[in-house]
């Protein structure tokens, strides 16, 4: 069972359940004809109406889909059973807890720093590049925060679990 919220709507989210007989939306059977036109575009017939749907962006980590339906943009946020359980337990914010620092995932050489103290970063923003085993690894922010201190500089050698950036 999933719940879906469209465009951060304040009205109740939709419940979606997949059964052997097809999907149920809010407990009612959902019948449609779906034809893939290309990798990201689909033609849909539902209740004698025609729709063209284009997948704009899929963020599997955030469980969000941005799509265009007949030229109108929609963002759909999905929650699975685990997300719903965390919400019921009052722990829905646990996954987006405030971060304190970024540590080196492996020993290596700092070849680039993309941020400065005072910068505000979002989850997924590139903060530095760590070269290890002859490969450059882009280190991204694991959450939102403001950079308090940068403990390394370009050219520094670091060890695993060494603090690189403090928030």
TrEMBL record:
Pfam families per UniProt: Biotin_lipoyl
InterPro entries: Biotin_BS, Biotin_Carboxyl_Carrier/Decarb, Biotin_lipoyl, Single_hybrid_motif
Domain Lipoyl-binding: 86-167
Gene3D superfamilies, per the entry: 2.40.50.100
Entry keyword set: Biotin
Organism domain of life: Bacteria
Protein name: Biotin/lipoyl-binding protein
Organism per entry: Rudanella paleaurantiibacter
